[in-house]
Structure formats: C-alpha cells, structure tokens
C-alpha cells in the first residue's frame, strides 16, 4: 500500500484516511458551537484489512492538528481518541469538562446522527 493521505470532509463530519484510492479508516466527528467551539470525535473506524498499521493513531493525531490550526479544542467522546490523547499529552491537551458535558448533551439531543 502507498502512503496514507488524510483528508477532512467537514460537511460529512469525517476525517478520512485514504490508501491506494480507497477510504481505509475514518473518525466521525461533529463541531460543537456552544458553550464554545470544539471538535468532538465520536467514532474511529479502520477497515479490518488495514488494522494494526497505525491508521487510527494517524487519524487521531491529524484531528488534534486540525483543531490546533483552527484554534479550537478537542472534546473526545470516542474511546479510542480518549486513550490516544492520554498516551500523547504533548499533542493532545486535556479536554475541558464543561465542553465534554456539552458534547455529551449534544449527542443525546441528536440520537440519529451517529
């Protein structure tokens, strides 16, 4: 497989990893607007044939890079991203508890979204 390319499909709420022209993994997320703007990852999925190649970690790192570039925090609800952030505190600042609570409230208010 060639190198992995990561693209942000903001309209779809997906950060996608592409390899050999196909999506091999993605993070589903939404943009929280209140009480402050934040990126909220909900699910990380890597196709079974591509597991164990570091794709999920690359997606998580890129999500934090995008957030830093936009000047917004990440409020992770995705268990994988939560664990990744714990292992990489240099790249993933801790989430504000108020943002996490607001993100959970948003998710409960939009049950069909994810």
Describe this protein's structure:
By secondary structure, the chain is α+β, with helices and mostly antiparallel strands. The chain contains three helices and four strands, in the order ββββααα. A four-stranded antiparallel β-sheet has the order 1-2-3-4. A hairpin with a 4-residue loop joins strand 1 and strand 2 (14-19). The longest helix has 16 residues, at 55-70. The mean pLDDT is 95.
| Total number of helices | 3
* Whole-number mean pLDDT: 95
How many strand segments? 4
Adjacency order of strands in the biggest sheet: 1-2-3-4
Share of residues in helices? 25-40%
Order of H and E elements = EEEEHHH
Unreliable stretches, pLDDT < 50, 5 or more residues?
A: none
Largest sheet: 4 strands, antiparallel
Short recap of the structure:
Helices cover 33% and strands 27% of the residues. The protein has helices at 55-70, 79-87, 97-109, and strands at residues 5-9, 14-19, 22-32, 38-46. Strands 1-2-3-4 form a four-stranded antiparallel beta sheet.
What are the main properties of this structure?
single chain; 114 residues; alpha+beta; four-stranded antiparallel beta sheet; 4 strands; 33% helix
What layout of secondary structure does this protein have?
Layout: E1 5-9, E2 14-19, E3 22-32, E4 38-46, H1 55-70, H2 79-87, H3 97-109
Antiparallel strand pairs: 1-2, 2-3, 3-4
């Amino acid at each position: 497989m060639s190198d992995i390319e990561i693209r942000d499909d903001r309209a779809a709420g997906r950060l996608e990893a592409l390899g050999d022209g196909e999506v091999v993994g993605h993070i589903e997320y939404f943009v929280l607007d209140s009480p402050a703007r934040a990126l909220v990852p909900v699910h990380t999925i890597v196709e079974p044939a591509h597991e164990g190649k570091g794709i999920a970690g690359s997606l998580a790192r890129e999500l934090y890079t995008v957030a830093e570039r936009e000047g917004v925090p990440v409020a992770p609800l995705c268990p994988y991203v939560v664990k990744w952030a714990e292992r990489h505190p240099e790249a993933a600042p801790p989430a504000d508890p108020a943002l996490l609570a607001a993100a959970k409230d948003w998710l409960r208010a939009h049950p069909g979204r994810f």
